[in-house]
Amino acid sequence: MSVAFLFPGQGSQSPGMLSALPTHRVAQDVLAEASDVLQQDIHSLETAEALSSTIAVQLATFIAGVATATALEHDGMTPKLVAGHSVGAFAAAVVAKTLKFADALLLVKRRAEWMEQAFPHGYGMGVVVGLDEERLSAIVQKVHAVTRPVNIANKNASRQFTVAGHEAALEMVLDGARKAGASKAVRLPVRVPSHCALMAPIEAKLKEALERVAMSDATVLYAANVNARAIRAAASIRTDLHASLSRPVMWYEAMVMFYERGVRLFVEMSPGRVLTSIAEAAFPSARAVSVNVSGLEAVRSLYFHTN
């Protein structure tokens, strides 16, 4: 039975998320290395005040994902496949041994800085649950305008999507979705319009930055955000890491691909739990567990019981 490691993205953050990580020695070593590379105490990133910044959120989420996976691997729990949602893709790339941790950390920092500088306020993201893509697309197209752009950003499940854009347009789309029968239509704690055409200028900068960083072919299969394909080639992963910034994340298709390849245990890294819920709902015959919710011991027991 194959095991997949899932790395959450922005929106899964919470105050104290780094302090809540496992006290496992190798996980703490990752935190120490992050502090050295960034030349700051990384626990300063996890306060409620700090997490109002896109930069702190993306850095803390990335660090938490790598630290958790490092602890699991140290204890003999290794994935056959990895997938990261949005900024989580950088953590997946590190665990797949295609990017070095220090290089990825600095790339995530630059990525977040460029995003925050381009959209300091007035934009964001929301989530809609319970409508199909055709129905939601019609609502988005009706609202979208040059002065208030809005787009479908991510397909997380067959009837769960995120939307990104101008705050006024987001509110109109969410209101329209609720009126159309969505079971949930709310804003997300994300202050930038990720994974849509508004991010094209930042994608170009990230592409240049990635081209200056050494990358290796992955040691395990990596699920591309932009097309849900399982890839190993460094060049393909490099392209995915920048291209996904201005294109929707095809998360649901990636998880279906994993299931078709035999994945029956989905393990979500800290600080997330939403990806676990998505996998549980989509694949009742598989197991899904969040390290953040269940802890390392529970994950260890499940992993070795099913392998």
What labels would you give this structure?
single chain, 307 residues, alpha/beta, Malonyl-Coenzyme A Acyl Carrier Protein, domain 2, Alpha-Beta Plaits, 2 domains, six-stranded mixed sheet, four-stranded antiparallel sheet, 11 helices, 10 strands, 17% strand, transferase, Acyl_Trfase/lysoPLipase
Structural notes for this entry:
It is built from 11 helices and 10 strands. A hairpin with a 6-residue loop joins strand 7 and strand 8. It has 2 domains: 2-118 and 197-305, Malonyl-Coenzyme A Acyl Carrier Protein, domain 2 (3-Layer(aba) Sandwich), CATH 3.40.366.10; 123-188, Malonyl-CoA ACP transacylase, ACP-binding (Alpha-Beta Plaits, 2-Layer Sandwich), CATH 3.30.70. It has 307 residues and is α/β, with parallel strands linked by helices. The chain has helices at 25-38, 54-74, 88-95, 101-118, 133-143, 167-179, 200-211, 234-243, 251-260, 274-282, 291-306, and strands at residues 2-7, 81-84, 123-129, 150-157, 160-166, 184-187, 221-223, 230-231, 263-268, 287-290. The chain has a 6-stranded mixed β-sheet, sandwiched between helices. A 4-stranded antiparallel β-sheet has the order 4-5-3-6. The chain is globular and about 50 Å long. This is Malonyl CoA-acyl carrier protein transacylase. Residues 6-296 form the Malonyl-CoA:ACP transacylase (MAT) domain. Belongs to the fabD family. It is an enzyme of class 2 (transferase).
